[in-house]
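RECORD TYPE: protein structure
NAME: Bifunctional glutamine synthetase adenylyltransferase/adenylyl-removing enzyme
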Amino acid sequence: MTRPAPRTLARFGLSDTPRVVEDLRAVGLLAVDGTVGEPDLPMLAAVSRTGRPDLAVAGLARLVQAGADRAAVLEALRDQPRFRGRLLAVLGASTGLSDHLAAHPQDWERLLVEALPGHELVDPAGIRAGMLAAVGVEPSAPPCTGTGGARASVTGGAAVAALRRAYRSTLLVIAAHDLAPAVEASLPAAALPAVCRSLTELADATLQSGLAVAAAALPAAAAPARLAVVAMGKCGARELNYLSDVDVIFVGDHPDDAPDGADETRMLATATTLASSLMRICGQAAWEVDAALRPEGKAGALVRTPTSHAAYYRKWAKTWEFQALLKARPAAGDQPLGDRFMEIVEPGVWSAAGRESFVDDVQAMRRRVEDNIPEDRRDGELKLGVGGLRDVEFAVQLLQLVHGRTDPELRLPNTLIALRALVRGGYVGRTDGADMAAAYTFLRRVEHRLQLQRLRRTHLLPQDDADLEWLARSDGYLSTGHASAADAFQADRVQHRATVRRLHEKLFYRPLLHAVAAVPGEELRLTPEAAAERLGALGFRNPDAALRHLAALTSGVSRRAAIQRTLLPVLLETFARSPDPDAGLLAYRQVSDALAGTPWFLRLLRDEGLVAQRLATLLGGSRLVGDLLTRAPEVLRLLVDDVALTRPEPEDVRAALLARAARAPSAQEAVDGARSARRHEMLRLACGDLLGLIGGTDILRGLTSVAEATVQAAFAAATRQVVQERGAERARIAVVGMGRLGGAEVGYGSDADVVFVAEPLPGADTAAALDDANAVADLMTRLLGRPSPDPPLPLDADLRPEGRNGRLVRTLDAYRSYWQRFAAPWERQALLRARPVAGDAELGAAFVAAADPFRYPADGLDQRDVIEIRRIKARVDVERLPRGADPNTHTKLGRGGLADIEWTVQLLQLRHAGAVPSLRTTGTLTAIDAATTAGLLSVADAAALRDGWLEATRTRNALMLVSGRPNDQIPAHGRELAGVARALGYPEGGDPGVFVDDYRRAARRARQVVDRLFDGS
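PREDICTED:
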């Protein structure tokens, strides 16, 4: 069956031009009458999938016209789809290789050979044998090592031509296997590492052959010399491109049998002649040999002895030179001499990260590379630009150099293999590693296709639309609908470029790198005895226990242990600077054990160095943070930056807590959810407090708000349950905050002082309504104080009428009656802080309105009440101050402490609030401000009271943060005192006695005001 050709050409991506028609006829794919034979349709379909179909047909025509057996070529194309894919792919992708086939038409038969099974495209031994044979060297002969070993029998221009021919012939085979899967689906995809290895083997064989040619041209009188060719860069890492410079360093030395005292100058002259000849021969035959990475660069000697190299790298080498040596590998010449060079430089490579400002130097070098790209090339630069190959390579190399000091598994020259090792070792996340490897593979593949187009060394995407389409199609992209292959390619490129840049910035500028690099290398590899000694020197009181914690965290081969081994050398330094290193490390182990099943925990610490440092600081300074963290690990995510930690507003936290509790199916689950949310907020506030990011009054506001919301959630849950159990709602109930809850001055360790008021609903029995209200109050108390991993919020109703002996819930009339008949002065004083916090808002407002005449007496207090309040205060000072407590440093009951200041301010309110409405406030600081405005306090006295109250409140909160338990007594000495000072912002390493002096000074000034105003003295 035949079809008319002209109407089918467009279908196969071919131009309907005289040149294309002529080429098709020359090959035998188009008959004289313009038809195509049915057997040739699969061939044209394959042509349609090539990078540039017209170019593929033209290449076939040139191949036949150059002397290839047309019948044999056509038969192979028709009968062997895999060969068809290889030949057409090359012809459609590369004008350079098409030119080579036209010049050497018999090379098409080389594409009949299948790729090797496994991971190699071409047999390395076959590559080397072919290159050596081209210059007349027997492949089995001892390799040329300088003046020793096999020399070429073909020299001069003939040798260069033979090497060029052999090189291009092998390059053709590698490229055909690489490109063919885009044309012929039955062919397996060629892995990028396999392609790069084959190209590197070809480069090594070319260097070795070039050395044999150079040796053959030496004069007979040349001094004996050995020469090692050390490959650098991509050749050294076995990840060479199709068209790269081959970076090398030359090492020269006397032969092993040279007599003592042999002339080094003559030996180096011979070695230099060999090296320069090698560079010229390979440059003419294949690619430029670049020796600019040698010591002192282009200004330095081309060849140095091992001793000279050792001296240079020991004394003068810069950071970038050690980074370059990461990829060094003996590639040709004298192998033992190359190995000796590696022994010399390798220790410097893996200790370079310990140099001062090493990380900064590497990062600065990458920025300089970017800055030097011309503006008009930035977007199309595959190698050096933003999101390009260098971003991946610099990030991987920096991680290797920093962490490879102690982890030999990372000492690998190849980028993709090293990236896999970094993932395996836990230094890079699995997802990040996979994304970076995919993007790097894409960029390298594009670079290869680009270089193959015209066999030109380039990393710049074409500006011409036709060339860009050619590039995209050569990589397997095809037009779909209205989108061209170039459109699809560009969309993928933009995505991969963004991925590379994101991960580059994440990994390359990871703060942890600076910290790890700053740890002396010898401290990362200590024996147990030396480690214990070092821990003791760092300030750990129990080094043996610290060693056990470290062993538990880092033993084994899991990723978790590997990440811990990276983190701990840095964290230990932070723990050592904390007030209690032992407690910090113990807390870190407990948190790590508790969060072992949380996949993002260690990943966050590894990837966000600031989080790791902050966590160590917090755990080393606060037992409360460690206690809270195991049940609220998500707060760690907020440590990434200051904004995340300080952004949440109390109102938003309250709304989220109440919404969570409302969704719970039972009262216990609702309160448990509220308590869990309260733990989260307490931890966030504690972290912000200790890091100096949230001020003292904002801490009080936040803790009060979340405590209030927790009480509201408990009230709603308890009310629902009681109504469900009893079948009807019979009472209105209000919860009134007292004490610090009412005053909106809740601290980390505060209880919730409350009283309950209830009123029967219309038609309900009063006794039954009060019984329901009692059930609600009792259930709230039990749920909020129930043992749980979350901090309890005990409800304390002892400030109700008759205290613990009184009824838990009363009606509003019962409260009024009690206040009128029995209320003592101290009960009036307690009512100053009464504020509705939960339940029926109208009833709560009625309660405080009823309390106003008693707490704000219109005529003030009579003298007997004033004397009684003073008497009670004196009794409290004597009876409630704990035995052994220091009255000068007890924050609550000590001289100038919270009780002194608050009783003084409350006495002012009781005496004057009836006449001064601005004094009718539940907060201490607002009452001080109101008394100052009203002229009841001088500005100086108000400042002393305010400063004393704030100092005592902050110190009391700091005591809770440091010890993890409610505490009012400032320690006399020791680590806890140092911890409190640090928690209050005093400098690391400073004398905590400065804090104690500051506290006592503020308390003393406040006490002087209290003595005058409260006692009337």
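COMMENT: The CA atoms of residues 1 and 656 lie 75 Å apart.
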